[in-house]
Each structure stands twice: as C-alpha cells, then as structure tokens.
C-alpha cells in the first residue's frame, strides 16, 4: 500500500536563494512551523535528525538518510518508522526555475508499508497542511531576504 502527498508554491526569488534557505538546517527553528529543529549533513548518505510538529498532530523525531542532494534543485531523504515495510517514507524537495528569476518549490512524500491505510487520514489532515505551512513560511523568509539583499 502507498500514499503520496504533494504540495508546491511559487516564490519570487532565484532557485539558488530558495536552496540556500531550504538547506540551512540550523535556521529552521527561526522560520519553519513544521520541521522545528533540523541537524545533519545535506549530502548523499548523510543522516539527518528532524523534529517535526504538524499542527494538530503528534510530534515526532525522525532520522532519515539523504539519498539525493543536487545543489539548487533537488533534495531527497528516506526514513522509516520501525522495521522496513511497516511505514517507510521518501521525501523530496524540487526547486525549479521559472521565468523572471522566480522559482517553484515542490514538496512531496511517498509513504509505503503496512501502516499506510491506518495513517492515511492523519497524513491528509496533519502532514499535508504542515507541508503547505512550511512552503508558505519558506516563501516568506526567502522573499524577505531577497527584498533586503
């Protein structure tokens, strides 16, 4: 069983600026309403420690492994709850250039495993809105930086 959540937002800034904010993990507590604490190395094979607090959902600390880190365009990590096949997740951020020096940030996550059917409603009610809140907060932070640059 699998389920995919998808969220995207357009940002008035270059992909490089979006990437800079997205990968500055130490600054997440300053602006990120979903991943409120983040540590680790943004490099393939790097382990991250992410404290996620979806609004109305249960807070959880995850330790995913980075599977792709293409500077300025794509960041992916993979994690799981418990044993493989129970509740596995692959998260992806894509930053695409748009006309006029703008960018599109797409955030998606594919969940697989035995617990997906039981977790589906919670993912829709708590996790997807958390993705959208994070995207909006990242947009505000990047655009504020761009106006003050």
Describe the 3D structure.
The chain is α+β, with helices and mostly antiparallel strands and about 150 residues long. The chain has a single domain, classed as Alpha-D-Glucose-1,6-Bisphosphate, Chain A, domain 4 (2-Layer Sandwich). It has 3 helices and 8 strands; from the N terminus they run βααβββββββα. The strands form 2 sheets. The protein has a 5-stranded antiparallel sheet, covered by helices on one side. A 3-stranded antiparallel sheet has the order 2-3-4. A hairpin with a 3-residue loop joins β7 and β8. α1 crosses α3. The N and C termini lie far apart (about 45 Å).
Distance from first to last alpha carbon: 46 Å
Kindly report the name of the CATH homologous superfamily.
START domain
CATH class: Alpha Beta
What number of structural domains do the residues give? Answer: 1
The string of secondary-structure elements, in order, is EHHEEEEEEEH
Query: If strands are numbered along the chain, what order do they take across the biggest sheet?
Result: 1-8-7-6-5
Q: Mind describing the biggest β-sheet?
A: 5 strands, antiparallel
Class computed from helices, strands and strand pairing: alpha+beta
CATH architectural designation: 2-Layer Sandwich
**Rg from C-alpha positions?**
15 Å
Shape: globular
In short:
By secondary structure, the protein is an alpha+beta fold. It has helices at residues 15-22, 28-31, 116-147; strands spanning 2-11, 35-40, 48-52, 60-62, 65-70, 74-80, 88-98, 102-112. Helix content is 30%, strand content 40%.
């Amino acid at each position: 069983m699998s389920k995919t959540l998808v969220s995207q937002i357009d940002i008035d800034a270059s992909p490089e600026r979006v990437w800079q904010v997205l990968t500055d993990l130490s600054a997440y507590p300053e602006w990120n309403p979903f991943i409120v604490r983040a540590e680790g190395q943004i490099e393939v094979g790097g382990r991250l420690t992410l404290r996620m607090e979806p609004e109305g959902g249960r807070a959880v600390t995850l330790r995913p492994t980075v599977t792709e880190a293409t500077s300025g365009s794509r960041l992916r990590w993979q994690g799981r709850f418990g044993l493989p096949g129970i509740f596995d997740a692959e998260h992806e951020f894509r930053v695409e250039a748009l006309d006029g020096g703008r960018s599109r940030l797409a955030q998606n996550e594919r969940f697989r495993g035995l617990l997906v059917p039981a977790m589906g409603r919670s993912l829709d009610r708590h996790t997807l809105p958390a993705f959208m809140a994070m995207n909006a907060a990242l947009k505000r932070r990047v655009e504020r930086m761009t106006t003050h640059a």
